[in-house]
Amino acid sequence: MKKNILFLCTGNSCRSQMAEGWMRQLHGEEYNVYSAGIETHGLNPVAVQVMAESGIDISHQKSVLASDYKDIDFDVVITVCGHADENCPVYLGKTNKIHHGFDDPPRLAREIEGEEEKKELFRRVRDEIRDYLKDFSL
């Protein structure tokens, strides 16, 4: 039986979306994979682009609130940013909460002028998420 896993961040626009895409690609046969946010900021188009560069299409994913999944019993919730970790909704029962923070590419990109340099930030975080998840198991 597949385990339910949720990736949680502030706006469910970038890091949690990339984590959902990688987890489906790497371990989709083992987990039902979801992502959500404390808020919803919409799917980040640069995150979609850099994931597509790795052969993963996340363009069909939606930015949703954690409360949208209130009826799902999660085996694990992984917070991918400090704000989500500090404000994570309470999950009762057998839910295991793990925090593994990643830099926020959209926030860091605000200080960079060149588009290619901005994409490099997204690629770095994309690859860090992949490396974290490639050997993941519960």
TrEMBL record:
Phosphotyrosine protein phosphatase I domain segment(s): 3-137
Give the keywords, sorted: Arsenical resistance
Please state the span of the N-terminal signal peptide per the UniProt entry. Answer: none
Q: Does the keyword Cell division apply?
A: no
Could you give a single Gene Ontology term from the biological process aspect?
response to arsenic-containing substance
| Record keyword S-adenosyl-L-methionine present | no
Q: Which InterPro entries match?
A: Ptyr_pPase, Ptyr_pPase_sf
| Highest taxon above the source species | Bacteria
One Pfam family this sequence matches: LMWPc
**Record's protein name:** Arsenate reductase ArsC
**What organism is listed for this UniProt entry?**
Oceanispirochaeta crateris
Q: What is the lineage of its organism?
A: Bacteria, Pseudomonadati, Spirochaetota, Spirochaetia, Spirochaetales
